[in-house]
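User: Some background: our group keeps a shared notebook of sequences we're curious about, and every so often someone picks one and asks for a predicted structure to add to the entry. Today it's my turn. The entry only has the sequence so far, pasted here. Could you supply the structure so I can complete it?
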Amino acid sequence: MLVITADNYGGPSLAMGVYNSATQYAWMQSTYSNSAGTYRALALNPNGGNVGIGTSNPSGGKLHIHGTATPSLHIDANNADSTYGQIYITDMAISD
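Assistant: Of course. Here's the predicted structure to add to the notebook entry:
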């Protein structure tokens, strides 16, 4: 795990690592360096620019998601009372 912090007194930090199990993924978490259970907001490009997932050239909007798997976008919000809100966007064609 790699932790980047602004000071040695428990200030905001960015932790990054890899999880080597059956799912094998990399992760990053905004937190405090002296309290791993205190999570903070993570801003991507707070001064401008686009964010791309699955593309190295994000265009056409602030968030550009490119994928070949279905669904291309999956948002799943789990509330404390175990109710779910889900949005799935799959292949969509927009024409004039």
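Suggested note for the entry: The longest strand covers residues 12-19. The chain has no helices and eight strands.
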